[in-house]
Amino acid sequence: MKRRTKYKLRDKEIVEKTIEMLSQHGFFDLRMSDLAKETNYSMGTIYSHFASKEDLLLACAHSIVLEYKKLFDAIVNQPITGVEKIITLAHCMWYISMNHPALREIIDLSLMPSVSRRGSEQRTGEVIQLYGDILTAFLDLVHGAIKKNLHGHDQLNQTQTKLLAHQLAYGSWSFSVELSSIIQFINSNPLNFDGGDEKYASFSRNYCNFLKGYGWQEENSDAIFKRCNAIAQQCISEITLLFA
User: Fold this and answer.
1) Cβ contacts of 103 within 8 Å, gap of 6 or more
2) I need a labelling partner for 55 at 20 to 30 A (CA). Which of 8, 29, 31, 173 fits?
3) Are residues 82 and 186 in the same domain?
């Protein structure tokens, strides 16, 4: 086996084991010495791949976001409207936040400036590039949805439409991040007695109102959310093992 190939396989193995350990213990309780024991690699080997604990976190985030991109690509290719694709993507984020909060935490932490400052230039650049690729594709999706599925924007010129697309895209992103934070807080609150149905009802109602604020007009929005829900769950089960 070539040295470069062996290096990449070892890198992948360390990242996968780290994601597993982060899911069990969280980032702040993860010790590099424990990771070395779990992987049977020396500390020197671990640090030959990753400059710091934060550098390793960025590598884990990159691996997880690659799985997000698989989901994104699969949903974009679904035979549904642009707004329905946006809703389906939101459902995917909802289920991942609900069922894999540790993975969402890795993503959220990777966005913190204090993490990127302690990560290597290579790892930081890879994560930023991947986020940028997904955001660019999402902006294209949103731009198409504004033209075909959202009402009240016919008089906008190209510059105004582009600005609106950015507002909707970043608003949807912010909604997802806030949603993840709320879910993690609720799930860790011992006084929380709400079931999954109540949480989902709150999610769907709020996201529906969010889209209506941008001109989405559907009388039977519940049926659309139900259909998008089913597509999201199907894509998660078929496209990626990490989120299944």
Assistant:
1) 19, 23, 64, 96, 242, 243
2) 173
3) yes
